[in-house]
Structure formats: structure tokens, C-alpha cells
Amino acid sequence: MGQVRIIGGAWRGRRLAVADYPGLRPTPDRVRETLFNWLAGTIGGARCLDLFAGAGALGFEALSRGARSATLVERNNQLVRQLHAARAALDAQQAEIICAEALTWLHQAHEPFDIVFLDPPFRRDYVKKTCALLSNRGHLTPTAQIYTETERGAAPPGAGWQALKQARAGQVEYSLYRYTGEMNEVDGALSGHL
To answer: How far apart are CA 176 and CA 178, in angstroms?
Structure first.
């Protein structure tokens, strides 16, 4: 069992347990620090969505830094139990934890978010599919920003997305995007991939 540390805001320094689960990679401290520096002007009062939440490092960090709410979506029951324990330890009443597969949940949910954290399993083409669902199914406010964390060389979100910030840490690429309003041609083909 490892730990992840909240690095800023009201819960700065608090540590959350992280299960030893294959493929789980909580966002490293220095990457999170860079990300939340990028979001410094917009995180306060934001409605956040943490897809593929894993240990919940991004969602809980957002709440610590003043986000109004965070919806954490994770499919693995063991990790969901861990997320509930973290919410209880922090008394994070603004956190909603949902046990569901991310793409399936996006087909069913209909609420807009200001900031979306997208840190899917590596070596799968999740970013393009997920961004298509986010843009075409009413999940984004007009000024929404999306953070993506992928392996080096992974496919970008596709048409209609503007890169605001991009950086690299080892084999990980992380970026902040804004949707510019063009329809993404991938949406119509998504149903066969779920």
C-alpha cells in the first residue's frame, strides 16, 4: 500500500492511501504542481470531473484548491472503496464517487463540467473517444478545460480541440485543452467500442 500527498490548498500535506493495483499510476507531485499552476485562475468554484479516477489524486487536489465539486468515476471496486475512505478521511462532502466504466457513464450522464481530468490507462486509445463524448454530449461548459495525461506519442483529442499548455515528464505527456466547438467525427463510431 502506497500513499499520495495532496500538495496544495486546504488539505496540503494530507496523505491518502493508494492500493497496489496493476497499472495504477497516481499523477506525480511535480506534474500535479504544474497542472494546478496552469489552472490557478480557474479552479476556484469549478465543477470538476475526474474520469478514470484511480487513487483520486486529481479530484481531491482540485477540491483542496477550491473547486466547488468533483465527480470521481472509477470502475474498479477496490479503488472505489479506497476513494470512499479518502473522502471520509478528508470530510470531502463536495466529492461524488461513482463506480462505473468511464465511457459508459458518459453516455448516460448529462451535466456540464468546467474542468475534466482525463488520465486513462496507457496503451489504449481512450483520449480521442472520451473527448468526443465530452464534446458531443453536453458535458462541457463553454469555457471548459480538459487535462490529459498519456504515454508519449498517444493520439491527441482530435478535431475541435485547442492545446493551451503541454509538457512532458519522462515517458508521460500531459496537456491542457479547450474545446473550440467543432463536432468530432469520432462520436458516431463510438458505440461499437464500448
So the answer is: 7
